[in-house]
Design goal:
Number of domains: 1
Strand content: under 5%
Distance between the termini: 64 Å
Structural class: mainly alpha
Oligomer: single chain
């Protein structure tokens, strides 16, 4: 191997090492993203299971319905809503199934610095 090839190989190895150092932390972000998606899915599952009772009518007799929105999506209870899902916001539904309810949610807001 001549000197030019050796220098090129060293440069390539250095570039690969630098790229690797950039990509390694990104794998952690990917794992966090997966964990968040799984968490939100499980929250949604709990909400769907909680709404399936006889005292919680759904629109047009559907067994399951869903709503989408962020946890900041808040709305006071509306007793005249057509269905349980439309009766309040995402946040209120989550607080129904979240251990500790609204108080725990507010503590998490303070701890992690996010607001409604």
């Amino acid at each position: 191997m001549n000197a030019d090839n050796a220098l090129s190989k060293n440069n390539d190895n250095q570039i690969y090492s630098q790229i690797r150092e950039i990509l390694l932390p990104a794998r952690a972000y990917s794992a966090v993203n997966f964990a968040m998606v799984e968490t939100y899915w499980l929250i949604g599952k709990q909400i769907v299971e909680a709404q399936a009772g006889n005292n919680r009518p759904n629109i047009k007799g559907c067994k399951f319905q869903h709503i989408a929105g962020s946890l900041e999506n808040t709305k006071p209870f509306d007793e005249n809503a057509k269905s349980i899902l439309e009766s309040k916001g995402v946040r209120e539904h989550v607080c129904e199934v979240l251990e500790g309810g609204s108080e725990a949610f507010e503590k998490r807001e303070q701890k992690y610095g996010f607001k409604k």
